[in-house]
Amino acid sequence: MRSSHTAGSVSVRFDDEGLVSCAGLVPVLRLAEDVGLGGLIDQRVDLGIPVGANTGAKALSVVAGMVAGADSIEDLDVIRHGGMRRLFTGLRAPSTCGSWLRGFTHGHVGQLAAAAAEALVRLAGRVPSLLSGTDQLAFIDIDSKIKETYGHAKQGSGFAYNGVRGLNHLIATLSSPVCAPVILTARLRSGNCDSRRGAASMITEAIGLARRAGATGMIVVRADSAFFTGPIIAAIRKAGAWFSVTAQKNAAVKTVIDRIGEDAWTTIAYRHPIPDPETGELITHAEIAETTLTAFVHAAENPGRQVTARLLVRRTPRFKRNDQGELFRVWNYHAVFTDTGFDLHTADEYHRKHAIIEQVFADLNDSALAHFPSGRFPANHAWLVLACLTHNLLRATGCLTSGFHAKARTGTLRRHLITIPARITRTARRITLRLPANWPWQAAYQALFTATHRTP
Q1: Rounded Cα gap, residues 275 and 99, in angstroms
Q2: Alpha-carbon span 442 to 57, nearest angstrom
Q3: Residues facing residue 222 across a β-bridge
């Protein structure tokens, strides 16, 4: 096979005013228009200062830039090239959007979050497959991450438990066994805050929003051991949901595990190797058993919050050498505290799929949350909310496109459907987008375009 090469001489000129590089913004922003996103933000968000005027247009400019891959305020200029103004009205410059973001306070972020929550409800109504299956069984996953920052200029940055200086963001996602996760709510905290801070109230808020969005079936809240606390479990139960939370390895949990008889363990094989929670080693087999745990028994720390529920225990073998060089087997234990009624194997499988929230963090890191762009804490918090709103908008976009794109990573959606070059032509008052011949995902884009431009 011969290597490819450039045929003839090549020159460059940036002079085509009818060319755009992100033709996928047309159906995506039409979807945003269908759910009234701009008007919704105009109604809910009022900065009360001159820079807060036309807040819906500025928010949509940020969202459009994020859809196209912008991960900083300067990158928002990607929506103002070529013929973009012939396709969209109200596009704002990055400097304008940056000033708008810096005008936010904590209260204004709450207003924006309320608008994003209502937008998710409307998207679920406009795209029923977005939350398919949640009317039977839904999972709310909660977790926090540290986004590294550099220097001392960013408000709220601090050193976290892992020694990294950054900002801490907490998110809650909603998914089902058949649909990919959307983001229910997100909060930005200082880098040195405890992972559990504000989690109980956030879970209550997330469960309420999930119900509004159509998750009328059983809701199971999944979390890791950082959220194994009395107030969090109490909040889940009070909201009418079930819990599946990794148990901390305290003395009470270890005592209960030690009482499990050897004949109670059942061997399971994993179709795909999974990483050991402690060592990171890939494991193909494990043993599981079930017992009962009464947790949060200290009245001073958890008044009235004592809970008795199932404790699912998974153990994986590892081998060590003793002083004589002889091999002997020891076990790594991983326990899950849950009040669900699933059988042991199903409950274990469902809890392991809590790791799906890591895919959401990866999607955010691969786009708007590559870093927090402002030195002001409320501006970064607003940026986080808009990034989550963009994630949900892209997820709905994928659902309108195909079964594959309904669960594809947002980076894949961007490559297949968004960053497509097009030339704008106009005939008899009608705009036509001339897209590349032989585009590999032509059928997918056509399906999306048809779904968003159909006649009501």
Answers
A1: 44
A2: 30
A3: 141, 244
Over residues 72-84, the pLDDT tens digits come to: 999 999 999 999 9
In the beta sheet, which residues pair with residue 189? 168
* Three-state DSSP state, 279: coil
Q: What is the pLDDT of residue 152?
A: 77
Tell me the torsion sign for CA atoms 377, 380, 385, 388: negative
* CB of 256 closer than 8 Å to CB of 265: no
Global pTM reads 0.93
d(CA 176, CA 356): 11
**Do residues 397 and 417 touch, judged by C-beta distance below 8 A?**
yes
Q: Residue with structure tokens 């499988």?
A: 349
Tokens of 214: 């159509």
Which residue shows structure tokens 């499990």? Answer: 260
Q: How confident is the model at residue 316 (pLDDT cuts 50, 70, 90)?
A: confident
Scored b (16 or more CB within 10 A) or e, 273-297 reads ebebbeeeeebeebbbbbeebebbe
Describe the chain by its helix, strand, coil percentages, rounded to 5. 40, 25, 35
Tokens 């790791």 belong to 355
Structure tokens at 296: 């949060």
Length of the chain: 456
The C-alpha atoms of residue 384 and residue 367 are separated, in whole angstroms, by: 11
Do the beta carbons of residue 305 and residue 230 sit within 8 Å? yes
Quick one: which of 146, 116, 144, 119 has its CA closest to 203? 144
DSSP letter (8 states) at residue 68: T
Residue type (1 letter), 102: R
Cα–Cα distance between 96 and 102 in angstroms, integer?
10
| Helix/strand/coil for 388 | helix
